[in-house]
Amino acid sequence: MPTLVKICGLSSPDTLMAAIAAGADMAGFVFFEKSPRHIDLETARTLGLIAQGRIARVALTVDAADAALDEIVAALAPEMLQLHGRESPERVGAVKARLGLPVIKAVGVATAGDVEAAKAYEGVADVLLFDAKPAPGAAVPGGAGVAFDWDLLRNMGARRWMLSGGLDAENVKEALRRAGAPAVDVSSGVERERGVKDAGKIRAFVEAVRSL
Fold it and tell me: Catalytic site residues?
C-alpha cells in the first residue's frame, strides 16, 4: 500500500494547490494562535472550499475547547481532526463522539517510554501521530523541524499511525526505511522560511516518498 503523505500548516491557496498538484493525500490546517502557521476562520472557509473533493482536510488544534472546535469544523468542514496538545484519552474519545469525526492524536516522542505511553490512546484515536517531543517550555507542541530516533517505531506493525518531526525530502526515505511508517506528516521541512510553505519543496517531498 502506498505511503500516505500529509502536508501540514498550509495557509494560502497557492501552497494548498501545490500540495494538491504534488499528489499529497492530506492537507493540515493549524488553528493555534501561537503557531506561525495559524489560520483564522475566514481563511479556513476559503481553503476548505479549494480542498473539497481534492484532498482530505485535517484541522489541527491544541487543547481546544468545544466552542472553538465547533467553529473550526463549521468553517473548514474537515474530514479529520488532529489533537496536538495534552488531550487525555478521555478527551479524545469525547471529541470524537461529539463531532462524529475521526481523530489523529499527536504524541511527543523522545524515548521508548513515550511510545509505550501512547498505547493509552489505542482504541480511542483513529490514528496516532508520533512527533518529536518539544523542549520543556516550548511555545508550540510541533512544527519545530526536530527529528527523533526513528528506530523507536520500527515495531509498530499494522497499527494506524504517522511519522512526523524533522522530515524533509532528503531524509524521508531513510526515515521510512527505519520506522516503516504507513504515513508521514511534514510541515517545517517544506518551508522556505518559518511558517511559509515552498511549492518546490512540497513537490520534492512527495516525490521522494512516492519513489520508494
Answer: 8, 131
